[in-house]
Design brief:
It is a single chain. The chain has two domains: about 20-65 and about 115-160, no CATH class; about 70-115, no CATH class. The chain has three helices and seven strands, in the order ααββββαβββ. It has helices at about 1-20, 20-35, 100-115; strands spanning about 45-50, 60-65, 80-85, 90-95, 120-125, 140-145, 150-155. The strands form two sheets. Strands 5-1-2-6-7 form a five-stranded mixed beta sheet, covered by helices on one side. Strands 3-4 form a two-stranded antiparallel sheet. The N and C termini lie far apart (about 65 Å).
């Protein structure tokens, strides 16, 4: 009876620890096989974000996380709000207010959170929700993996800095 109980417990533990979701398996497969483009940092430097496309391919966005804002309202960060052009053709400007600095800080923190954490993998229900940036060189890498052919269709950096 004790032997049966031990075998049952071991079987239950094994099934709990060996179950990997399809999404986790896809992420692991891609991450174990990918060769990042020239100029990319090590894979651990990126937040790795995945979603299934309508054609059943996987779109992955590897993005370097942004550090949370270090804006401090007591310091001058050279923030200026551009104004109109004066009669001499010079651009007028003024220093940012405390409210504007706070708004910038909140926006930077929101972007930082949306990028995720380095060496972390996340699955998104919709590819439109994946984080992205314009340009950025290899700070962002786009990957398309074809499940049917079990191969990469695209691995590329996001463009110029």
């Amino acid at each position: 009876m004790k032997l049966l109980l031990i075998v049952s417990i071991l079987g239950a533990l094994t099934s709990c620890t060996s179950h990997i979701s399809d999404q986790q398996q896809i992420m692991r497969t891609i991450e174990s096989r990918i060769q990042l483009p020239e100029g990319a940092r090590p894979i651990e430097s990126y937040s790795r974000n995945y979603a299934r496309l309508p054609d059943n391919k996987i779109l992955a966005v590897y993005i370097e996380p942004l550090e949370p804002s270090s804006i401090d309202e007591t310091e001058d960060y050279g923030c200026e709000v551009m104004g109109s052009i004066d009669e001499n053709g010079e651009m007028e400007s003024r220093p940012c207010t405390e409210d504007e600095l706070e708004e910038m800080k909140e926006m930077e923190n929101a972007i930082s959170e949306s990028h995720g954490n380095a060496n972390g993998s996340r699955w998104f229900k919709n590819s439109h929700d994946l984080p992205f940036m314009d340009g950025g060189g290899c700070s962002q890498i786009e990957v398309i993996f074809d499940l049917r052919s079990d191969s990469f269709d695209r691995i590329r950096c996001n463009g110029p800095l």
